[in-house]
Structures are given as structure tokens and as C-alpha cells.
Amino acid sequence: MQIIPMLINGKWVQGDGQAFIDVVNPSTGEVLAQLKNASKAQVDEAVQAARIAVESEEWRQVKAFERGQLLLELAQYIRMHAEEWSLLECRDVGKPLTQARADVEAAARYFEFYGGAADKLMGDTIPIEDGILNAVVLEPVGITVHIVPWNYPLQITARSVAAAIATGNAVIVKSAEDTPLTTHAMTQWFARKFPKGIFQHITGLGREVGPLLTRHPDINHITFTGSVATGIEVMKAAAQNIVPVTLELGGKSPNIVFADAPMEQALEGVVRAIIQNAGQTCSAGARLLIEEDAKALFIKRLVDRFQTLKIGPGEADVDMGPLLNERQYVKISALLQQAKEDGYVITGGDTLTIKGYEKGYYIQPTILDGVDADAELAQEEIFGPVLTILTFSTVEEAIALANGTDYGLVAGVWSKDLDTAHYVASRVKAGQVFVNNYGAAGGIQMPFGGYKKSGIGREKGFVALRNYTQMKNIAIRYATPERT
Ligand code: TXE
Description:
The protein is of the alpha/beta class. It is built from 15 helices and 22 strands.
């Protein structure tokens, strides 16, 4: 059995922890590999190595455009190994192969985007007075920690690592215990191409190994994607050392469908937004807000679509794969059982056994109707293929429902009327609003992040480079040369 090694201080090492943690293919139940927890001493060694590396003359002498070129080289490498990496991601997460391929493509594009941006992030000058040149420069923050979840391991690692390296930082990635495979593949490339200590990979259980990193007094920034509860823990840990955080904490995002929506696109958009990666997507469109007049027909067609979706192992490249692990499966099937007893399920609601894949974590794509807008099923992130329907009659009602949760990551607005669409987009409290589409082809270039409990800060796009820089003002007084 392969033990996923960590990369610490340029060396491949196994975690010091006693227990072996299984990395399971959620489609089949097969154990793909194992890993071990990093110990405190190993995390300390990684942080120390990162400090030495990031402050070394060797790293300081790597020019911004050269860092960019290295990232572009990685993008090329990813494209060369696209099929191999897609299969790794498909097996590790259980997602359909087409979606895994899209993740690999997105990862390559993050490295291209930030590789190209590496020498284009500029400071500023400020006019003070004659005899003073006032420059604002952007310096690397130093050691950046990246705590990555299991739903989009490759994409999420790529998006923050690329921005952090482009700006000249050291990176320590803690991959999710369930899904270390593509991070390990990426680490192998970094190990060959980068000075030791600039890129390191740590493995282990989040609740045990995570705090060793987030509480470490010598780190300079934490990027975390995950649940609100763990986000709070990460923020508390960071507060002890006054370390800035970028948090992306998921959502309960609405798709708001008006009666004058382009119905075919809206239907497809609503389906995709909730079944992609079996609903295990931070920006999943988990709530459908539908205008009363359009409800009956739209729901009928939606139910038809849900009932014809192909569900099965990721490698069969179906419409929807399994949930990630037993924990998510048990949690979500219990929620669905209760929803069935309460009479909310209009389609789905059951677990599924797929012939030949009996150990996979399959559930039916599910639609719930009649749920109170304040109920848990309409408020909390379920993180499965479960769509909750709420109904509105006026624009103001739609906006109130859209804004009626603690989250605010993404919203979809579907209407052919530009006034309605613009008005709603301006009133919805979400970091991204999509009008007559949902997701806009991935949006590597667009700022992404949440209002309210969906997080702090923005990832993706040019703006994310700022997460990994420290601003310094340098005022230089110069004297008028004496003239002879
Ligand atoms: O999340 P956690 P879990 C949501 C989603 C899901 C729920 C639970 O609703 O059902 O969270 O999933 C690491 N210090 N999202 O338990 O605990 C851990 O290794 C530092 C939304 O997986 O937030 C894991 O890989 N790190 C989401 C990662 O953090 C810690 C993606 C996320 O774990 C840690 C995933 C700690 N104390 C889950 N505890 C999104 N926004 O896309 C755990 N980790």
C-alpha cells in the first residue's frame, strides 16, 4: 500500500503519527493509499525550513518574472499529465471524470493566470513634497499556510498556492486527509524545481495537524477553505499571533428564478448548480427561489431531470458520483430520512446501492418543497445533492429570501427583464452574482469570496495577490545637488 509522504525541508518523510489513515475511493470503497499524521516536531521543522528558505538570498534573487515562468512551466506540466491527474482526482474525490478534467484544466489555468501576473503587481508613488520620493511597495508576507478541503483538492490548492508563490512567499499546504493524491503529484514537481522549504506538503487529520500549523507563532498568513465551525477555530488560532486569514466557508446559495426567466437555461443552470460534485461545492445552488406563477411547470420539469440523472462511479463519467465519505453519507442520509418523515421530499430522498459498487456512498439527487425558510434544511449547508425550494410572489420577497441566511457566497438571478436582474443583483448580499448563468465558466479571473459567514477576503483574480503581500511605505528624502 502506498503511503503518501510529506515534503518537509526538501526531504520526503512519512508522518510520525502511529495510525495509518486510509485514503478511500468513494465510488468503490477501495483503499487507494494511506497517510500518517505529521507530528508537532515535523510541523515545526517545516515552518523553520520555510523561514530559512523565504528569507534566503537564493530565493530573494529569483526575479518576479522567473517565479512566473516557473508557474507557467507547472501549468504546462499539468496539461501534459492532464489525464493521469484527472483520474487521480476522480478516484480520490469520487467525482465524474469530466468534472475532474475540468478541475485539472482550472488548476493549469490558475498557474497560468498567476504565473503571468507575477511581474505585474505594482506598488505606487504618492506625491508628498519636493525632495521626498514616497514609494509604496508590496512585499511577500513570508510563510503562507494553505488548509485545503476535500471537495476540489487540486483546484483549491492551485488557486491559493499559485498566488502565494507568484508574490514570492513560502507555502505550506496541509491537504485534506481524505484527498491528498493530486497535491502529492504537484508536490513532486515542486520538489524537483524549487529550492527546499519554499513549497512543503503536510498530511494528517485536520483537527489534529491543522492546529499545529494555524497556531504556529512563526507563520504569516492562513488561507482556509472549509466549514464555518472550523473557520472560527482557524481564526481564533490566527488571532493568538495576529496572523491575517483568508476564509472561504461555503454557503446556502440561492438560484432566483423569475417567471420571465429564460426557462431552458434556468432549468439546466439550477440542475447543474446542485448536482455538480454531488452538491459538495461551496458555491452549490442549494436553494431554488421560484416565482409562484412559474412554479408548477418548472418543478415538474426539474423533477423529470432529477429522475433521469445517471448516478454511479466517477470513472464511468456519469452525471453524479457518490458523496465523499461515510461521515457525509451518514449525516446526509439521516437528514433526508427526517425530511421524508416530515413530508418535504418530492423526489429522491434515499440512499442508492449501485450494482458492483456496493461500498460506494451513493444517494439520490433530492428536491425538498414545503420547508419553512427558517428551518435548518433551508438555512444550513447540507453539502449533498439536495435542493430546497422556496416560493416568492414579489421581487422584494425574493430578495428577502435570498438574503435570509447567515451565508452570502454566490447567487443566481434568472430573468429576461434587465431592470429586475440589475435591481436584484444590487440588493443580494453575496460575493458573486450571476445573471442568467451560474458560474460563468469557472471564473479564474473573478474575485471570489463571501459576505457574512461565507468568509473573509477574496480568492481568484488579480485581487487575491494582495492576500499574500505586505504593504510598505518608503519615504526617501533627497537633497538638491549643489551646483558649481
Ligand atoms: O469540514 P472542516 P469537514 C463544509 C460542508 C461539510 C462540512 C464538514 O458543509 O459538510 O464543512 O466537512 C481541515 N484546524 N465544508 O468536516 O472541518 C481538514 O483537514 C485546521 C465546506 O471536512 O471545515 C479539512 O480538510 N484545519 C467547504 C478542512 O480543514 C482543520 C469544504 C475542512 O474541514 C481543522 C469542506 C482545524 N481545527 C467542507 N479541522 C467549502 N467551503 O467548500 C479540520 N481541518
